[in-house]
Amino acid sequence: MTKSLSRRRSLLGVGAVCAAPAIVPSYGLAQSGLPDMALRILVGFAAGGGAELMARIIAPQLERRLGRRVSVENKPNDSGAAAGEFLKKSLSDGSVVAFLPSTTLASKLAGMPFPFDSKSVLVPLTVAGTFQVATAVSAKIGVSTFAEYVAWLKAGPPERARLGTTTTDTYLTIYSMMIGRELGVPLEAVPQRGAAPLVVALKAGTLPAGLGSVTTLLQHNLGIRVKVLATSGSKRVSVLRNVPTAVELGYPSLALDEWYGFFASSDSPSPILAAWNRQLRAVLAEGEVIAALARLGLDVDTSTQEDAAARLASHQQAWKARMESFGMKPAD
User: Fold this and answer.
1) Which among 126, 158, 140 has a CA at the least distance from the CA of 260?
2) Domains of the chain
3) Are 210 and 165 in contact (CB under 8 A)?
4) What is the distance between the terminal CA atoms of the chain, rounded to a whole angstrom?
5) What is the pLDDT of residues 309-328, one digit of tens each?
């Protein structure tokens, strides 16, 4: 684990939950319903991001519950086909699950490379919780509200209309286009290779504004060099009570409530899929897990396998409609 990741946990007050628990005697397959072996949670991003922080809150609690090792492994996009082969071979025994945001699945519609899953078909196990996208600005542009940012955009040269994003995922590019359409100012999405480069650019003023998940930008919202002006949800985030939503600001079409979920291979035996759903939902219902994830901007919200599948299908349809509204043709 990197020093920066440890520091982030300390800042967010999740160290106690993330501490490695003592291993208790294994329940075994008969008790837990899961394979009696070490288990893994795969995160489709580089180390240090919000997804990994959340997975590392959940993993030790799951480990304590099951009495066996549960590790978190990063498998970002640039791992390519080799990582896809890893999933193909490892997911089918039911010992490995993936922890992914719904936005990553939406990117498949644009033909984007899918993290570590070039070979295996994933099925949802359960929704884990909802999150929002934050719009932040550099303190160097001298605005303190979203209305001031809009006025600043419209009063200046075209180069002001640059909006950094934390990933190359299509969803943030589309969302920046949605914002531009609503404001009447076409915005140029400027993808960065992760949250850290975006924050550096915002602090330096080389990018005037940016988009990222609340989890990603939360710790930098100090009002000194980076300031979050709005979030995308239908209601305010509990850890950003002073930040208005797009709906409150008069932009209901910019409402965007995304979610994280756990996924497994469609080759996994049905009883093991059901067991994962049961065990994950039990861990996510624990009070300390709910509180720790809330501090990262994730509101816990679990589901049955059937409800997760229906939610995913509805989510994909919504993103298809957004893409088509900009003349984009979704991939099959």
Assistant:
1) 126
2) 3-131+257-325 (3.40.190.150), 132-254 (3.40.190.10)
3) yes
4) 38
5) 999 999 889 988 998 998 88
Task: Tell me the C-alpha distance between 70 and 64, whole Å.
Answer: 9
pLDDT class of 41 with cuts at 50, 70, 90:
very high
**pTM of the shown model:** 0.81
Tracing tokens 């960065």 back to the chain, one arrives at 192
Residue with tokens 């899918």: 114
d(CA 131, CA 213): 7
CA-only gyration radius of the chain, Å: 20
Helices (H), the chain: 3-12, 15-18, 28-32, 50-66, 80-90, 102-107, 146-155, 170-183, 195-204, 214-217, 270-284, 287-294, 305-325
Given a contact cutoff of 8 angstroms between Cβ atoms, the answer to whether 250 and 109 are in contact is no
State the amino acid at position 125 in one-letter form. Answer: L
